[in-house]
Write a structure and sequence with these properties.
The chain is built from two helices and six strands. With 158 residues, the protein is α+β, with helices and mostly antiparallel strands. The chain has a single domain (16-150), classed as Thiol Ester Dehydrase, Chain A (Roll). A hairpin with a 4-residue loop joins strand 5 and strand 6. The protein is globular, with a radius of gyration of 16 Å.
């Protein structure tokens, strides 16, 4: 059994079957470092690309809502190299009064390369302050969490 990661809410982030949204990322030559593998900082860029694509699918432009990254924890499991592609999965795990928590898995050819947890704060881009999400956004995020739980993907022992 994989160790429980704070913020994962009982989901095994190494299991690709739990993710409802995926982004395919092409590994660039410039992503490698002098060790000859993809640099650890690049994983955060991949996670951001997946997160932004997914969150904008949940928000309506009329919401005038954005998010800012407040925390990210990445667990590196296996190295990877150029050339190639990776698939990044994202899953909402929690919503607070002004924040959301999301879980990630980075996979290549079915193998988990890394997992991550991120906390984003809802942000009003006009006033430049944190804010509560509109009810419609909260409902969409809660529906995503409920759908994942209903499919039996999370452990019952939260």
């Amino acid at each position: 059994m994989a160790r429980e990661i704070e913020g994962a809410a009982g989901f095994d982030l190494r299991d690709p079957s739990i993710y409802r949204h995926w982004s395919r990322i092409t590994i660039r030559f410039s992503d490698e470092d002098r060790m000859g593998h993809v640099n650890n900082a690049v994983y955060s860029v991949w996670l951001e690309a997946c997160r932004v694509e997914y969150l904008y699918s949940l928000f309506d432009p009329s919401d005038e809502l954005d998010t800012v990254l407040a925390r990210i924890i990445v667990d590196f499991i296996k190295e990877t190299h150029y050339p190639g592609e990776v698939d990044v999965g994202i899953l909402m795990t929690a919503i607070g009064s002004k924040s959301i928590t999301s879980g990630y898995g980075v996979f290549q050819n079915g193998e988990c390369l890394a997992t991550a947890i991120a906390v984003n704060v809802f942000f009003d881009s006009r006033t430049r302050t944190s804010r509560s999400p509109p009810d419609t956004v909260r409902e969409r995020v809660l529906a995503e969490i409920a759908a994942a739980r209903a499919s039996g993907d999370a452990d019952d022992a939260d």
